[in-house]
Amino acid sequence: MEGLASELKKYRHIFVVCDRNVLAFAEGLASGRQWPILPITADETHKNIDTVMEICRWLMEQGADRDAMVLAVGGGVTTDMAGFAASIYKRGVSYANVPTTLLSMVDAAIGGKTGVNLDGLKNLLGVIRQPEFTAIYPEALETLPERELRSGVAEMLKTFIIKNPRNAYERAVKLFSSGSFASLEVAENGELAELIQIAAGIKQEIVEKDEFESGLRRKLNLGHTYGHAIEWWQKESGRKEQFTHGEAVAIGMVQAAIISEKLGTAEPGLAERIAKDLKACGLPTVLPCPEKVLLPAIKKDKKAEDGKINFVLPVKIGKVAVKKIAL
Questions:
Q1: Does residue 217 carry a catalytic annotation?
Q2: How many domains does the chain have?
Q3: Is 245 known to be catalytic?
Q4: Which of the following is catalytic: 47, 221, 261, 303?
């Protein structure tokens, strides 16, 4: 953790916002330091403007000024909300991320997207504001439940479908297949650490070229059009067995590949291959409801423009295309 301490040396007043599930980890980071800590409930139900206001009020009560540094410790919900709060508190203070889930390490904590849900629709409120830095510690994954770890695998594979340096996609499928997973030593696995680094690097490279999602960055939404719609549907329907974000994105990637094949954009058999690989990694691949049920959420998706949506279509492993599709 010496690297984190070095990064934070220039900040006099540090305020930690953490997922209450990783409070012990956050306390370890703050050990011996006068860093106030606010544990929050970091789930999709609480990912709303009320929680952001709670964070802002806490900062105000703690006497946080314009020189404050907000350190977000947790998964993507935590970094989204803490980053959003930091972006609007006193017209913006510094923030940094210490992601504790695989999903946030390879995706959510990188790129500066912050925000919350509105009426069950994903991330309709938010701003793009870059963190001062993102510090990744694979050992934070040690206590992560297996299902949450696999959820992050979906976002990792999404990244490698977009770009696949050093056969990262194939290596990730092999590493996280059901046969290999049981013996996976998360904190000490050099292969996993390298794959996290590659995935994070790909996202950072894309973000640096297109910070405000005017073109290239849209590729990172692969699987998310249907994924977000599934998350909306399960909340609206009161479904007892809820998909995680990564699981919903996995299903969304298969749907995107099916559409891509129908349009002649993808290589024949790509959808079947992606479904097979995701299934091998313990992820769902089939829509949980009729497709037409998801259309209301898809039409309200933040990527929709003038009755069309910028849909990310896989072409092959390592290449995607963005096409406008009529809703």
A1: yes
A2: 2
A3: yes
A4: 221
